[in-house]
Structures are given as C-alpha cells and as structure tokens.
Amino acid sequence: MDFFKQIWQKELFKITSLNGLSVLLKIMVGFVTSKVISVFIGPAGMALVGNFRNFITAVENLGILGFQNGIIKYTADYQNQEEKQRSFLATVTVTILLVVLVLSVLLFCTAAYWNNSLFGAVFQYSAIFKVLALCLPWYIGSIFLTAVLNGFEAYDKVIKVNIIGNLIGLFLSVALVYYYKEFGALLAIVLAPVLVFFITLYYLYNQLDYFRISFRNYNTDFLRHLSEYSLMALVSAVVGPIVFLSLRNTIIHTLSYEAAGYWEALTRVSSYYFLFLSTILTVYYLPKLSKSESIAATKSLFWSYFKGIIPFFLIGLVVLYVLRGYLIPILFSPDFQPVSELFFWQFIGDAFKAMALILGYQFFAKKLTKAFIITEIFSFAVLWFSGQYLVSVFGIEGIAMANAVTYGVYLITLSVYFRKQLF
C-alpha cells in the first residue's frame, strides 16, 4: 500500500482537474461518435472516415507548415517584446495564409481525383473535398489561433476551446450522421474546426491587432527559426497518414471495406488510452527532459516513467483484453465483433509503443532533428512493409501483427540509441 501511496503523492499525478476533464471529455466524445458511426454506417463507413481523417491530418499539417510548437514557443518568448511579437505573428499569418490559399485552389480543382484515390469510384463524395477546400482557411486558422492562445499562456482558455470544440464535434457528428449517413460523417470532420475558429477568435479579441497582414513587418528570419520545428512535425504528420492510407487501401482491395473498418475501430480504441499517456508526457515529462542537463537526471526520469506509469498502463491493457468481448458491442456494434480477434497483437504493439514514447520525447526535448527524422521514417517503413506482407499472409490479423512488429523494432532501436541514458 505504501508503494501505491508514494506514487499517487508524486507531482506526476497532480495534473490539473480542468485538463483532466478535457481529456476525459475528448475520450467520451470519441466513444459516442464511434458508436453513432458504427450503428448508422457500419464498418465500411468507418473505413471511409478513417481514410478521410488521415487525409485531413496531412492537409492540415501542410497548411500550418508544422509550425504549431514553434508558434507556441516564440509567441511565449516574445511576450515582453511587443514589436517583435507583432512582426513574428504578422510573418506567420501572411505565410500560412498564402500556403492555405494555394492548397485550397489545388484541392478544389482535384476533388474528383482525391475522391477516387481515397474512397474509390463507387463512392461519389467529390463535394466533400470542395467543401474542405472552401473551409480550409478557417480550418487552418483554428489550429493557428489555438497555438497562439497557448503561446500567450492562456492555458485555461486553450482547454476551454478544446472542450467546446469536442462538444461541437459531437453535436455535428450525431446530427449529420443521422441525416446524411457517410457524407454527414465526413462533413462533420470538416465543419467542427471551422466553428472552433470563431470561438478561438473570441478569446483572442484583445490581441487581434497582432495578426494584421503586413508585408512591411515580414521577416524571413522567423521562418528560419520555425523550420527546425517544422521538419520534425511534418515527417510524422504527413508521412504517417500517407502510410496509413496506403495500408487501409491495401486492406480494402485485398479483403474488404468492412475489414478496413475493423482496423479503424481498433486504432480508435488505441487512440483513446494513448490520450492519457500523451498528456502525462507532454505536461510532466517533456519540460523536465528539456531542462535535464545530465545523463543521471535523464536516466532518473526515464525509469520513473517505466516504474510509475508503464505498470498501470499494462494492467489497463490486460483488463481491456479480458473484457474485449463485452466492450466491442458497447463501443461500436455487434457488426464489429471480429475486432476482438485483433486485440492481442494490437495490445502487444501498444505496450511496446508506450515504453518507446518516453524515449521518443527525448528527440523533441533536445532538438535531435536528424535522429528523429531517420528513426521516424524507418519505423513507418517497417510498418508499411510488414503490413503489406502480413496482411497478404494472415488477412486482417496481419495489420495488428504489423503494429507489434513495428513498435517492437522501434523500442529496440531507441533503446540502443539512448542506451547511455537507460543503462
């Protein structure tokens, strides 16, 4: 009992209640949305939504140029230098606006191509890509303004925006899926961030003058500083969705839309519990790793994670595995029962991933850009090749096996790279 008492009393577990509420709400919204989608449009519809989400992730990160973390950092750094902050925000605003306008035009003109590539000619949803093209400035604007709000250290407002955004997403998803089925589910993904833009704008009302478009204040030096953050962000945010899209299309063409929907349901379950883990890593571990100046201090942080977090995470995975037969009909629908056969290999991979995450955050903490890009591309390559092969041999179970193989290799790779901080 003393062991557990000591763990719970540590600073690690003293995360603010409002942020905890935000994460919990996001998970609950995800559960409800998944349930609605699974009931009204089934596994095939879930596969379409998964493809579109991956596509949008790539588009939004191209639109924001992977600048989010850099925007937060430099907005905060220039808090006491008003003219420099104005110049920085004006530069970023102009750059992102120009990029987004070009992306919007290209997306609108190639809507039919993206429909056939993502959904197949059997589905005629070109209109959704045209809607996305028209909404893209506000969509990207919501991401940009939230990053700025974070940079102003208005954390309570950022969390409130996230909470309101999740509620808006839930309302739109339920309403649009009910009335328009697959098209409604896709439309909800596009429209929710657009509404969040206006909410964020409201919270930034007193700072709107900072975003005035001004070529006179345009300074390319700011873009050079931001490029360090952009490289790392874009590799994960663009290459990752492309790999997932390719694998999902392989499953669709090799097996069926339903099988691809099972994989999407499985990845949704994983994303829910990884939300808690990423929150702990971002809020608690990342700042401490950034400040750590010795190998001994870094080793202490790594092992506090392995001893204090991983055991609880593994226990949670075991509980979920035992209860999987009961959980699937609750979270989705009886049509998704085949997903239960994929949990074993998925959870093995997720256990490896959870252990590797703390090592991966060290790349960001110490700005190890080159090492991050190499290991990230390597891990995506392992996922793609193992996924292609194992799906052809074992069917849909092969994609879960590929997850285990990928993160097993990834954990070994990072353990070797950071061996001095670990052993």
Key terms:
423 residues, mainly alpha, single chain, disordered N terminus, globular
Low-pLDDT windows of residues: 3-16
Q: What share of residues are in beta strands?
A: under 5%
Major sheet, described briefly?
Answer: none
Class per helix and strand makeup: mainly alpha
Number of strands: 0
Mean pLDDT: 82
* Whole-angstrom Rg: 22 Å
Q: What percentage of residues falls in helices of 4 or more residues? A: over 70%
What is the tally of helical segments?
Answer: 16
Distance between the termini: 29 Å
The run of helices and strands is HHHHHHHHHHHHHHHH
Shape: globular
Quaternary? single chain
Report on this model:
There is one protein chain. With 423 residues, this protein is mostly helical. It contains 16 helices and no strands. It starts with a helix and ends with a helix. The model is unreliable at 3-16 (pLDDT under 50).
Please outline what is shown here.
With 423 residues, the protein is mainly α. It is built from 16 helices and no strands.
Helices and strands in order, then pairings?
Elements: H1 2-9, H2 17-63, H3 68-77, H4 82-109, H5 111-118, H6 126-151, H7 155-203, H8 220-254, H9 257-291, H10 295-308, H11 310-322, H12 324-331, H13 343-365, H14 369-394, H15 397-417, H16 419-422
